[in-house]
Write a structure and sequence with these properties.
This protein is an alpha+beta fold. Helices cover 34% and strands 27% of the residues. The strands form 4 sheets. Strands 2-1-8 form a 3-stranded mixed sheet, with no helix packed on it. A 3-stranded antiparallel sheet has the order 3-4-7. The termini are far apart.
Length: 219
């Protein structure tokens, strides 16, 4: 039986050149499977040794880290390739406010200005094809129904961010967008407003082409 991929229809925040509202579709996940749940699922549906699988995952993680630290990409056939992302450090002024790096002379950039900022993942084409194979789609909101932004209050947004950052240490606009089921525009607006406040508890760093948001003292 084909899997049903959940999606939702949402209006784009800006109209097109003729002033018409246009729409996009987004995947609507049913939660996240943790490693603990994955091992329980594996134990229930297979005869594979889950203790061995857990050990294998730890070895794989350590090996990926080691090879990335050796300045190599790490490819897993049929899955994809991991690559380290580096960027310029965000420094702080005398009051502790973040200062975005700004260099007009490449000679001024030294090793002290560079840091590891993340890891990118490029899926193997066969991995994508396997996802596409024998699937059907399902509009979770119903045909012709477009989702809309939930009217979150500032207190609710702050509560969400604090809970998320306590567990994950950082968040991107896209992660916030999908976690709260709001548009890209609304997620970015909240993040911009909260980081621009006079006594803001949040700040952002640029990692490649992505801005990552943190809470002071919770990195």
């Amino acid at each position: 039986m084909a899997d049903k991929i959940n999606y939702g229809i949402f209006p784009n925040p800006l109209p097109d050149a003729e002033g018409n509202t246009t729409y996009q579709v987004r995947h609507m996940p049913d939660g996240t499977m943790s490693q603990k749940e994955f091992l329980a699922h594996l134990k229930y549906h297979n005869t594979f040794n889950t203790i061995l699988m857990q050990s294998s995952l730890t070895v794989l993680k350590d090996e990926i880290i080691e090879q990335l630290r050796n300045n190599k990409r790490f490819r897993i056939d049929g899955i994809g390739t991991f690559q380290m992302k580096v960027g310029l450090k965000t420094k702080q002024d005398e009051e502790g406010n973040p200062i975005k790096p700004h260099f007009t002379d490449p000679n001024l950039i030294t090793a002290n200005d560079v840091e590891v900022q993340g890891v990118s993942f490029s899926p193997d084409p066969s991995f994508i094809q396997a996802l596409k194979r024998q699937i059907s789609t399902h509009n979770k909101n119903g045909r012709g129904v477009a989702g809309r932004n939930k009217p979150y209050t500032r207190e609710q947004i702050v509560e969400f961010l604090n809970n998320y950052l306590k567990e994950n240490h950082s968040i991107t606009r896209k992660q916030m967008q999908y976690a709260l089921n709001i548009t890209e525009y609304r997620a970015q607006k909240w993040l911009d407003e909260l980081t621009a406040e006079e006594f803001s508890k949040y700040y952002c760093k640029r990692q490649g082409t992505t801005y990552v948001y943190y809470r002071y003292g919770w990195e």
